[in-house]
Amino acid sequence: MKLTAEEQAALDAARADTFTTRRPTVDSIEARLFVPTPCLDHGFIRVIDYMGNDAAIVQAARVSYGKGTKSVRGDRGLIRYLMRHRHTTPLEMCELKLHVKLPIFIARQWIRHRTANVNEYSARYSVLDAEFYMPRPQDLAVQATNNRQGRGDVLSPAQAQAVLALLKRDAIGAFDSYNALMDQHQLARELARIGLPLSAYTQWYWKIDLHNLLHFLSLRMDRHAQYEIRVYADAIGQVVADWVPLAWEAFCDYRLGGAFLSKQALAVVRRRLAGEDVVQQDSGLSDREWHELLAVLKT
Amino acid sequence: MKLTAEEQAALDAARADTFTTRRPTVDSIEARLFVPTPCLDHGFIRVIDYMGNDAAIVQAARVSYGKGTKSVRGDRGLIRYLMRHRHTTPLEMCELKLHVKLPIFIARQWIRHRTANVNEYSARYSVLDAEFYMPRPQDLAVQATNNRQGRGDVLSPAQAQAVLALLKRDAIGAFDSYNALMDQHQLARELARIGLPLSAYTQWYWKIDLHNLLHFLSLRMDRHAQYEIRVYADAIGQVVADWVPLAWEAFCDYRLGGAFLSKQALAVVRRRLAGEDVVQQDSGLSDREWHELLAVLKT
Amino acid sequence: MKLTAEEQAALDAARADTFTTRRPTVDSIEARLFVPTPCLDHGFIRVIDYMGNDAAIVQAARVSYGKGTKSVRGDRGLIRYLMRHRHTTPLEMCELKLHVKLPIFIARQWIRHRTANVNEYSARYSVLDAEFYMPRPQDLAVQATNNRQGRGDVLSPAQAQAVLALLKRDAIGAFDSYNALMDQHQLARELARIGLPLSAYTQWYWKIDLHNLLHFLSLRMDRHAQYEIRVYADAIGQVVADWVPLAWEAFCDYRLGGAFLSKQALAVVRRRLAGEDVVQQDSGLSDREWHELLAVLKT
Amino acid sequence: MKLTAEEQAALDAARADTFTTRRPTVDSIEARLFVPTPCLDHGFIRVIDYMGNDAAIVQAARVSYGKGTKSVRGDRGLIRYLMRHRHTTPLEMCELKLHVKLPIFIARQWIRHRTANVNEYSARYSVLDAEFYMPRPQDLAVQATNNRQGRGDVLSPAQAQAVLALLKRDAIGAFDSYNALMDQHQLARELARIGLPLSAYTQWYWKIDLHNLLHFLSLRMDRHAQYEIRVYADAIGQVVADWVPLAWEAFCDYRLGGAFLSKQALAVVRRRLAGEDVVQQDSGLSDREWHELLAVLKT
Q1: A86 assigned to active site
Q2: Which residue in the set B118, B171, B187 is minimally distant from C142, CB to CB?
Q3: ipTM score of the complex?
Q4: Which residues in chain C are closer than 8 Å to B189, comparing Cβ atoms?
Q5: N or C: fewer beta carbons within 10 Å in chain D?
Q6: Which of B175, B194, B201, B212 to probe the C interface (max C CBs under 10 A)?
């Protein structure tokens, strides 16, 4: 990831200004403000603005007149209670605004999260930078055989080289055509862009409340999510951990680190705790569910 | 509207703290922060937090690296362009959080605006204050005859007095019962509250983006809205005018102060501008639409 | 619950008509169409319309899976897979429309589910029927001591009688005033209604997709939900069981009948399965969480 | 647009079945059900299901208006009233489900309408057909000079030929690479697809209520929308005109065929109706707004 001199200057100017406010601030987020965290080869996330902190969750939950916090211990207990019982509306009282640069095929997964505000760079209005995503060799893998939408073994170096050569040649060719269509034929931008690859980078401003952000993270940090969007989700997770550490801890304990057991899986656990030696055949679970349960129970 | 000593102390403490931030601030909103603006007899709105300012709209519209503003004149032009062409996504990049105290019958109209975050004081969990809305005599009016959901002439002083006596007696009685049910019979709060009147006050934290807030205001500042919710909408309008003055000006010019003309109404205007003397009978408009058009055209 | 002769005639007329369609139909829902299922003393739900069935979920899911589905999996297997992996978008392809009559205090809980379409009877425009909710004696209970928002023991018959007398007297008084305000003083309806109790009944049309409906049910059929809204949720659950039996079965197995275990709770289960005798003090769980876990594990 | 024999057989089988229902039906939509309407070179829309009709709008509206409706107003009058006064909730009580095949760059504009249900064909799970959008020569135009996001004059035949040759060569090359990456290198589908062009076709099931559909149409049938999405919007408009003809007529009169006049534009109209000869310089309108107003007034 590389900013132009102009972009860097704008960013530096933004960081140079400080103001006085009565609103809650979070030092570790202030320190990050506007600075890009690189993601993939040309992408980034950067925090543009934030509203609220852990105390603001408590304040809203209590519909209180003051800042709502009596003690950090009290805040922690209430936030954990809210997370455990899925009382999610107080979490909606915090808001995060990001500037994100990302490949279009990832943008298409991301935008499916509807409860968010988005303003995307318009390729009808402006010309896209000639930047496209090329995976690292170690991220190229064959189609998984046990999962129709996943990856299996990593490609051999020779195969990876061949794959990247093909992807690169086509992407460069498509950007050359894009520029030729506009420069030589004056073709309207909204048409010239239709030949660009899904690996081309786009950008947007994205704003979302904490509850919906945690839902996004629980889906996109998951190992079933495509690797490339997980890179972004992990980077945002680091921001959230800095921003609202008590909510993040509760999220890790009550979402990320936990597991949902189906009615049948619970029955197996109960039988095993009662000393019974359950096997898959009489578990009521499919073979796949059985192995998923073993993985959860680490047994 | 009157705060308890404890509420006032919490509020004063919140106002006393100031912090340093890199985020955009708006002086006139900082000055207002946390202070209630009275609405009706016991209600209020107060600003708890805000995200963004006029420049943040421009910054998002430009998907820019810096603060996005080149000049105030440029910002004004762009914001007016966005408002005129209903490019509303950049407006979603500003967010406002309010604490509102309001009668339940107004809360029921308000909550119909779905694209917002709400956390309401729970009467299952806590006891409601014995506060209920009593209209001022000048706000008591007979049922409108020309509009099934509006008010007509103001009641005579004698009638107003009789009406208020009745409303007051019932409301006081209902709160007396509410307390008796809990204190004497230990009835669960979630049941004791079912006899309270719709005029009882509730409270919530309410958070909404600027685009959806302006939509709320365009409907709830309208003369067809019930007077009691207009009081709140007008108070919030004042906050918005202070917060994002360029967006507010554009909203007044392109929404509040303008009018939508139907296909038939436009045809009438065109004929009249061409010198024709159109009458309702050959206008294609119903009698009511005809008078609405005359009112818009002030002719 | 009692319909007027006019309402019953309208309902009978609606049921008498049948039409031919190419759309999927569900016999057990056709049999129910328009007929009210009573809820509480004066309320009901009735199915007005529905879109889709179990097969429609599979049909929508296979657009997404497209040509990848070469072997025909059973609808049941696919629906269970979708439910287990929270692939919820195909579930959104079914839609249910209900007419609901319910007390206002329940309507206020219900409306918090934002992803739905609602059109409510307007008390600004029309006069409300003189119907209000009176709990049955066996549903009157004291405030729970171990749960700030629940009910404890049932009231004694004598206390129940006293409570109901108070609630009834106030409600009748409020409706008398309501009518007097309109009839004797011609007060506008939008003002006359402000003294009505939260136990008064309102009505609405409510339309929601299956995914969001199941989310509603998972929260409102839960034992932490207020009894009065559970009555409605249970009635709707019966409709869903008839309408999309495969989706309902999967929902029962993967949501209602299952349980989420936190990171700490999972650790306890793993230790116990490994033969360790864990006690609360070294479980990492609070006392309350410990007892919740024991209840889930039935040990 | 061409279906495979297998697709055509599935479609014919779906059309062959008919059922009996108590739900409202619309003959002209039943006649269309499942049949694709071609859009662009390989795309289509086809109606999969619908809920409600004009009468269902009135039915929902009258719950809200309840007993207030004593004289029977025609459905048409009520629907026009609802549309004129933006009482949009009854319109939400109708729902349409479509299967759409469309180029990815159009899908990216379309998906920005958030209040809808979508299930898209997954290129992680399945292989995309080798179909991409090639504009007709008459749809190729230079960048507009007076509008940064529009098209100007049509290209000369020679230029159009050159442009199409370039677009076609790149698209064919990208699909060749796509297949080679999967077949020769076993690359995971989720990676192989990143080089495909934005002109590649995707498919989805899309379900939306009538209110939000009309909002979509008002934006996407507009002459400022990109031509390629207008083709789809126009095709859907035809479906709506058949499905709910009264709502469609009201939409044409009160939305499509009307115009919003800003505060300043209204002032100009008033002055001109009063006989004043207003010129742009003292109109309060920018040059662009002035010409837009003249176009609206056709003077």
Answers
A1: no
A2: B187
A3: 0.95
A4: 143, 149
A5: C
A6: B194
Contact indicator for A188, D141 with CB cutoff of 8 Å? yes
Distance CA B165, CA B160 (A): 8
Write the CB contacts of C151 (distance below 8 Å, at least 6 apart in sequence): B188, B190, B191, C141, C142, C143, C144, C227
What are A102-138's pLDDT values in tens digits?
Answer: 999 999 999 999 999 999 999 999 999 999 999 999 9
Residue type at A189 in one-letter notation = R
With residue D28 as reference, give the H or E element that holds it: helix D27-32
Measure the CA dihedral C16/C19/C24/C27, to 10°: 30
| CB-closest option in C65, C253, C289 to A264 | C253
Size of chain C, expressed as the number of residues it contains: 299
Lowest mean pLDDT among A175-179, C171-175, D58-62, D176-180: D58-62
Residue C69 has pLDDT above 80, yes or no: no
Q: Where are the domains of chain B?
A: 5-133+199-256, 138-198, 263-297
Q: Which two tokens stand for residue D43?
A: 């795309």
Which chains have 3+ CB pairs within 8 A of B?
A: A, C, D
CB contact under 8 A, C269 and A270: no
At position A118, the amino acid (one-letter code) is: V
Cα D263 from Cα D31, distance rounded (Å): 46
Contacts C61 to D, Cβ<8 Å:
119
**Model confidence over B286-297: pLDDT tens digits?**
998 999 999 999
Beta carbons of D273 and B297 less than 8 Å apart: yes
Q: Which of D185, D205, D220, D224 to mutate to test the interface with A (most CBs of A within 10 A)?
A: D185
E-strand ranges in chain A read 19-21, 37-39, 43-51, 95-103, 117-120, 141-143, 151-154, 201-209, 259-261
Q: Distance from D274 to chain B by nearest Cα, in Å?
A: 8
Nearest chain C residue to B107 by CA: give it: C108
CB pairs under 8 A between A and D: 153
* Chain C residues touching A253 at Cβ < 8 A: 262-264
pLDDT digits (tens, 9 = 90+) for B5-15: 999 999 999 99
C-alpha closest to that of D197 among A106, A197, A123, A193: A197
Beta partners for B118? B206
* pTM, rounded to two decimals: 0.96
| Assigned token pair, C96 | 């249910």
Q: Which residue of D has its CA nearest to B87?
A: D219
| Phi, psi (rounded to 5 degrees) for D79 | -65, -40
**In this structure, what token pair is assigned to residue D248?**
């469609």
Architecture per CATH, B5-133+199-256: 2-Layer Sandwich (3.30)
The sign of the torsion formed by the CA atoms of B162, B168, B174, B177 equals negative
Q: Taking a C-beta distance cutoff of 8 angstroms, is the pair D197, D170 a contact?
A: yes
β-sheet with C117-120: strand ranges across: C37-39, C43-51, C95-103, C201-209, C117-120
Helix (H) or strand (E) holding A76: helix A72-84
The answer to whether C254 contacts A266, with C-beta atoms less than 8 Å apart, is no
Which residues fall within 8 angstroms of residue D177, CB to CB, at 6 or more apart?
A: A166, A167, A170, D195
Pick the catalytic residue: D62, D108, D220, D272?
D220
Radius of gyration of chain C (CA): 24
Structure confidence at residue C220 as a pLDDT band (50, 70, 90): very high
- SS3 category, D179: helix
Q: Are strands C201-209 and D37-39 parallel, antiparallel or unpaired?
A: unpaired
Q: Which residue has the tokens 């677009």?
A: D167
| Architecture of the structural domain at C5-133+201-256 | 2-Layer Sandwich (3.30)
Name the residue in chain B with its Cα closest to that of C167. Answer: B195
Catalytic residue among A136, A220, A223, A270, which? A220
Condensed to tens digits (0 to 9), the pLDDT of residues D25-34 reads 999 999 999 9
Which residues on B lie below 8 Å from A5 (Cβ)? none
